[in-house]
Amino acid sequence: MAEKDKAGIEIFESPEALQEQLSKTEEFAKNNRQLVIGIGVGVLALIGGVIGWKYFSEQNNIKAQNELFPTVFYIEKDSINKAIKGDNNNTTIGLEKIVDQYGSTDAGELAAFYLGVAQLKEGKYDEAIKNLEKFDADDWLVQARAYSLIGDAYMEKKDLDNAIKYYKKASEHYPNDAFTPAYLLKLGLAYELKKDYANAVMAYRTIVDKYSEASELTTAQKKLAKVEYIVNNSK
After folding, report:
1. What is the three-class DSSP state of 135?
2. 174-179 long-range contacts, Cβ below 8 Å, gap at least 24?
3. pLDDT digit string (tens) for 20-78?
4. Which end of the chain, C or N, has fewer beta carbons within 10 A?
5. Which residues neighbour 162 within 8 Å (Cβ) at sequence distance 6 or greater?
């Protein structure tokens, strides 16, 4: 992935940004406790078609990348409407048109990710989920983040089962010391809201046992003690 793409994504993957989202989720929990396509010529034609399509796709990917970069800037500056709809300076056509015109390219898929992020910021949770689900990559960083953001959208919709499903996918996608603990913490919170304290214990215990250097450790320890107390006293 190009460096400029990584730079654009970094804002959403920083521990500070994750912690801010986590705080929001915790506030939600406090306020919603109960929900919380011949042979011969035919083959030659096929080969020619594949080569032509590959060239066409590469050109489209370059075009999409050029359109995408300014939208990342707008998202970072909280100019969400310009990111989604484009601007009057012909700098970018906006995320919606990038996804529509270049959706089959790598940059087009990344545009769907950013569109989902922008829509999540606007509180358009169903639209955000739809676009974030279009993003499908084998990388260890952005795909897990997409899963987590989908989980956030479902939390806002008070759909705990789907929130848990996606937080779990995020935490299991290429586990790493940098971001997995935050996903596990969200997973634990979602389990708590569902009053599934046994699974909440497992989520928090994983942080404590496997990610002892994580910034989330102290919070996980406190929450683990609380849910273990609930489990032990409900027998």
Report:
1. coil
2. 174/140, 174/144, 176/140, 177/211, 177/213, 177/214, 178/15, 179/13, 179/18, 179/141, 179/144, 179/145
3. 544 544 554 444 444 333 333 444 444 444 344 444 568 888 888 888 888 888 888 88
4. C
5. 150, 151, 154
Separation CA 152–CA 17 (nearest Å): 13
Determine what percent of the chain is predicted with pLDDT higher than 70.
75
Amino acid identity for residue 13 in this structure: E
> Cα 7 to the chain's mean position, in Å?
16
Angle at which helix 217-232 crosses helix 180-193, to 10 degrees, equals 30
- pLDDT tens digits along 92-114: 999 999 899 988 888 888 989 98
Residues 207, 216: contact at Cβ < 8 Å? yes
pTM score above 0.85: no
Interior angle at CA 21, CA 16 and CA 25, nearest 5: 145
